[in-house]
């Protein structure tokens, strides 16, 4: 029993002596800059095939939960994506804004060109009075069908002299960059032609959606062919190694009243028809049998066909004249 009394007395004396000593504060001359994440969360995957945007609820307000995020498909038209970085200062908050810089690096064995796919501001600011802050960097679309891994690190040598690296395990933020368009399982060569990755990327870029075997391919292939022709015209020196088949006739084309006026389907004929008819006539022709004048529309198309070929004898229309009704 005596030894326990002596031990308790020793603890009380020790506590009293500690109270008399001055508490030692943080004594580093510089403050440590680091990323504010758990060590297993110091990474992000940026996939340029899709991005998630906030859905707008039916009453017009944006959603507030992860379930309100919906995929958006931009393809190669998306130039860059922003990545927000959470930062933490190990030390004291300053009473002035401090500039710092970020830079990119790749590990040995990684593609060194990956450093060019990160875009930084000339410098960033860790705001006065803050121990936590947030900045944004941009990941650029590499335009090649590859995956890259690149890291964001602090460039303390070119930052405010009062800053240094913080915890070693939190001084690197890894970015996995993906720009791949793998072949969909439902891809049908008979509908859209042979698959290539660049071809699928072009489809997503133009149609703003992923491959859908139940899509309206009559319209979608027409859109894709027109977009590809425009792209080639704008980039005459660029080799394009894919093409799209002629779109199938829209279902309504082969209805007897329509077929009698139009004859055999071709995309060129369909496009010409849309250019000749007004929007109201075209919609009426397609959807409302009782509201269009078959003889008038047939004669209008035939006259336009003859006029075009007369004015362009060296470049006639690539399809036969419309039938005589």
Description of the structure:
30% of the residues lie in helices and 21% in strands. With 325 residues, it is an alpha+beta fold. The chain folds into 2 domains: 31-178, CalX-beta domain (Immunoglobulin-like, Sandwich); 189-311, no CATH class. Helix 3 (197-207) crosses helix 4. The N and C termini lie far apart (120 Å).
Topology, pairings included?
Elements lengths: L1 H19 L10 E5 L7 E5 L3 E4 L14 E4 L7 E11 L7 E3 L1 E4 L12 E2 L4 E3 L5 E9 L6 E8 L8 E3 L6 E7 L10 H4 L4 H11 L9 H18 L21 H7 L4 H10 L2 H9 L6 H18 L14
Parallel strand pairs: 1-12, 2-13
Antiparallel strand pairs: 1-5, 3-4, 5-10, 6-9, 7-11, 8-10, 11-13
Helix pairs in contact: 3-4
Q: What's the structural domain tally? A: 2
Largest sheet: 5 strands, mixed
Please count the beta strands (DSSP E, at least 2 residues each). Answer: 13
Percent strand equals 15-25%
Integer-rounded radius of gyration: 33 Å
SSE string, helices as H and strands as E: HEEEEEEEEEEEEEHHHHHHH
Spatial strand order of the main sheet = 8-10-5-1-12
Question: Helical amount among residues, as a percent range?
Answer: 25-40%
Please give a handful of descriptors for the protein shown:
alpha+beta, 4-stranded mixed beta sheet, 13 strands, 21% strand, Immunoglobulin-like, 5-stranded mixed beta sheet, disordered N terminus, 325 residues, single chain
Give a short overview.
The chain has helices at 2-20, 189-192, 197-207, 217-234, 256-262, 267-276, 279-287, 294-311; strands at residues 31-35, 43-47, 51-54, 69-72, 80-90, 98-100, 102-105, 118-119, 124-126, 132-140, 147-154, 163-165, 172-178. By secondary structure, it is α+β, with helices and mostly antiparallel strands. It has 2 domains: 31-178, Immunoglobulin-like, CATH 2.60.40; 189-311, no CATH class.
């Amino acid at each position: 029993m005596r030894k326990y009394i002596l031990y308790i007395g020793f603890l009380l004396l020790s506590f009293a002596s500690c109270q008399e000593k001055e508490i030692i504060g943080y004594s580093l001359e510089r403050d440590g800059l680091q990323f504010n994440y758990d060590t297993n969360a110091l990474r992000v995957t940026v996939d340029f095939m899709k991005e998630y945007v906030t859905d707008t609820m039916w009453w017009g307000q944006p959603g507030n939960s992860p379930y309100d995020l919906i995929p958006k498909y931009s393809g190669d038209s998306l130039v860059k994506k922003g990545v927000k970085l959470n930062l933490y200062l190990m030390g004291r908050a300053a009473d002035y804004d401090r500039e710092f810089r970020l830079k990119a690096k790749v590990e040995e064995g990684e593609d060194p060109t990956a450093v060019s796919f990160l875009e930084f501001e000339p410098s960033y600011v860790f705001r006065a009075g803050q121990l936590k802050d947030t900045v944004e960097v941009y990941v650029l679309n590499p335009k090649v069908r590859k995956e890259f891994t690149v890291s964001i690190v602090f460039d303390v040598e070119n930052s405010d002299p009062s800053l240094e690296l913080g915890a070693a395990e939190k001084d690197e933020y890894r970015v996995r960059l993906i720009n791949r368009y793998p072949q969909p399982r439902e891809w049908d060569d008979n509908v859209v032609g042979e698959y290539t990755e660049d071809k699928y990327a072009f489809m997503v870029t133009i149609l703003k959606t992923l491959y859908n075997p139940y899509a309206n391919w009559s319209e979608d292939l027409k859109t894709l062919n027109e977009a590809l022709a425009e792209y080639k015209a704008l980039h005459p020196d660029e080799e394009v190694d894919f093409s799209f088949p002629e779109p199938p006739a829209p279902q309504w084309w082969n209805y007897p009243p329509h077929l009698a006026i139009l004859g055999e389907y071709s995309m060129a004929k369909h496009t010409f028809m849309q250019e000749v008819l007004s929007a109201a006539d075209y919609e009426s022709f397609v959807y409302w049998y009782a509201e269009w004048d078959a003889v008038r529309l047939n004669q209008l198309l035939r006259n336009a066909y003859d006029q075009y070929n007369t004015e362009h004898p060296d470049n006639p229309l690539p399809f036969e004249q419309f039938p005589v009704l």
